[in-house]
Amino acid sequence: ETGVTQSPTHLIKTRGQQVTLRCSSQSGHNTVSWYQQALGQGPQFIFQYYREEENGRGNFPPRFSGLQFPNYSSELNVNALELDDSALYLCASSLEGNTEAFFGQGTRLTVV
Amino acid sequence: AQSVTQPDIHITVSEGASLELRCNYSYGATPYLFWYVQSPGQGLQLLLKYFSGDTLVQGIKGFEAEFKRSQSSFNLRKPSVHWSDAAEYFCAVAGPSGNTPLVFGKGTRLSVIA
After folding, report:
1. What single DSSP character describes residue A83?
2. Cα dist. B30→A61, B20, B51, B71 in Å?
3. Which chain B residues are Cβ-neighbours of A2 within 8 angstroms?
4. Three-state SS string across chain A, please?
5. Does the pLDDT of residue A35 top 70, yes or no?
6. From first to last of its 114 residues, what are the pLDDT tens digits of chain B?
């Protein structure tokens, strides 16, 4: 049990819709990173938030956006959903200056 | 660019047998190295990590890994596999400074047979 919680655990959306995924970081952690894990693949870095600012971004289009709140929880928003966005979305929290990340259980997104 | 290669997509071992999962990385300097395990439909659990110092690191659940700089490898080992070890294993690297993102390999699926 890492203390990182994600919601919802599963959801199904239609192509073109928008979705918001949520993550509560482990107590005391001020950095949140989001990863996309397609079926049969390793997780791929989407972006990271540190103290409410985006602090690095992977190779994902602008329709993937995020927020971090003062309590360090975070949201991942995806607009104009595409079928290829179907994946497990993982949130990881860490402490400033510490590379060790603790992962949540993930949100399984299916786009139909 | 950083990259991680896990050459074995799927490995099957007998319960009680030894295990070695391979990981090779590409990075300009010595990175931080990690092994994670993922059970079906679950998140990632950290097994062990290497930052510096002793190149043989011990982790949870009886796993260990050895960093070999000359081979750019960080192979995961376990002397005796249990049925509960069946899962997906991911090797990952990160830059040697805080808050750098993890770069993962594609994973190795471990099956354990009686």
Report:
1. G
2. 30, 22, 9, 12
3. 43, 45
4. CCCCEEECCEEEECCCCCEEEEEECCCCCCEEEEEEECCCCCCEEEEEEECCEEEEECCCCCCEEEEECCCCCEEEEECCCCHHHCEEEEEEEECCCCCCCEECCCEEEEEC
5. yes
6. 789 999 999 999 999 999 999 999 998 777 899 999 999 878 899 999 998 899 999 999 999 999 999 999 999 999 999 999 999 999 999 887 767 889 999 999 999 999
Q: How far is B63 from chain A (nearest CA, A)?
A: 18
**Chain A residues near residue B46 by CB distance under 8 angstroms:** 100-102
Best probe of the B interface among A99, A102, A103, A107, by most B CBs < 10 A, is A99
Residues of chain B positioned with their CB less than 8 A from the CB of A94:
99
Cβ–Cβ gap B106/A40 under 8 Å: yes
Query: Whole-angstrom Cα distance, residue B80 to residue B16?
Result: 5
Q: Is A2 left (phi over 0), alpha (psi -120 to 50) or beta?
A: alpha
How does strand A102-103 pair with strand B32-38?
unpaired
* Phi, psi values for residue A84, rounded to 5°: -70, -5
φ and ψ of B83, to 5 deg = -55, -30
Burial class for B83, CB neighbours closer than 10 Å (0-12, 13-18, 19+): exposed
Would you state the pLDDT for residue B29?
Answer: 78
Q: What is the mean pLDDT of residues A57-74?
A: 95
Instruction: Please give the pLDDT value at position B3.
Output: 92
